[in-house]
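Section 3.1: Structural characterization of target chains.
Under the original work plan, the team committed to producing a structural model for every single-chain target entering the pipeline before any wet-lab resources were allocated. The record below documents one such target. The sequence was received from the expression subgroup and is listed exactly as submitted; it comprises 412 residues.
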Amino acid sequence: MQRVVVTGLAAITPIGNNLQESWSNLLKGVSGIGPISRFDCGEYETKIAAEVKNFDPKQFLEPKQVKKLDRFCHYAIAATKMLLEDARLNIDSELEENLGVIVGCGLGGLETIEDFHTKLLKKGPRKISPFSIPKLIANMAAGQISISIRAKGPNLVTTSACASGLHAVGYAYSEIKLGRVQAMITGGVESTITPMAVSGFNAMKALSTRNDEPQKASRPFDKDRDGFIIGEGCGLLLLESLESALNRGAKIYAEVVGFGASSDAYHMTAPIEDGSGMELAMRKAIQEAGVSPSDIDHINAHGTSTKLNDLCETRAIKKLFGPHAYDILITANKSMIGHTLGAAGGIESVFSVLSLYEGKIPGTLNLDNPDEECDLNYCPYHSVSKEIHFALCNSFGFGGTNGSILFKKFTS
C-alpha cells in the first residue's frame, strides 16, 4: 500500500478567487454571503446567497471555450491551473498515464439546463446548441480538466449530493493507495445559484430566509438557525504517492490516512436522528488510519446551519468520541462561505489541510445563542492558533450518504 500525501491546493470561493485570499478571509471571519445578483429574486422567499465575486474566466480560458462551457467548468479549469502552479508539477509523458482526475459535482450545469429549456420553449428545438448536452453534464468538469492537462489516468465524477466533493477526495486517495495511479487531481466544484435551485430548496424549507441580515444568516449550531445559504465554488487538491512527492522534492502539506463512507439507509433528505450513519463514516476513517478517536484534534464539520443536520452531527461526534468530543476544536466553514453543495467537501478538505499545515483553525461565525444540545467547542467567531496532528473533514448528503476523510500532519 502506498502512503498518500497532499502536494497542491487551490480554491475559488465566495470569499476569494484564489487559495491565499480565501484562506486569509476565512481566518479573519469574513462572510461571503450577500444579495443574489444572478437573477431577479423578488418573488423568492430567499434572496441571498454566497456567490463567487468578480471572477473573470477569460483570465484562464479562451473566449470560445468560455462560451462552450458552463460556469462550474470555468471554476474547475481555473482552479486546476492554480493547483498545478502551487504544486509545481511538471506533467511529462510518463506522468500523463499515471495522473487521474476525480472531481465531485452534485448538480452539474443546472444554469445551462435552465437557459436552454427557456430557449426551447420560446424558440423551438432548432435553436438548441449542439454544445447543450456536453455543457451541462456533471462529469464535464473532470473531463475538461483531463483534456486541458492531458491526464490519461482515471477520469470521472462522483455525484452524491452534498458529499460529492469529499467522496471524490476519498476515492482518489484510494486509487493512489492501491498503486493504480501515481497522482490525482481531486476535490469538488459546483455553481447552481439559479432560479430552479433556489426555488427548489425553498420548497423544501431548507434555505435561510434571513434576507435582511445576509452575513448573519448562516448560523451553524446556533439555536436561531433557519436553514443553509446556497453557495458555489471549487476546491481542488493534488494527491500524490509519498514516493513520487519525495522523488520530485515536492512541498508536502499533509498526509491522507483514512477515508470512511456510509449510508443512513433511512430517508431521502433527513439524516437519521441519532447520527449513527455520520458516526459510522467518521469511525471508518479513523479505523483505516489505525489511530484512536482520542487522537483527533480537529473536525471540519459539515455544519450546514439546518436544524436537523447540526443536531445529528453533534450527536454523532458525541457518540464516537465520548468525553473527548469536548476537547476537539470544531469549525463550520459554511458560516462564511455558505453551503457550496457538491463543492463543499473539496473546499473544506483544502481548508482542513491548511489548518494542519499552518496550525490555524478558522472560527465559526454567528454562534450567538448555541443550541442547548449543540454544546461542543465550535470555535465561535475567532480562529484558533494551535498545532494539531489529525484533522477530520465531514460531508453528508441527501439520500443518506455520508463521508469523512482524515488528514494527518506530515512527518517523514
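The two ends are 16 Å apart (CA to CA).
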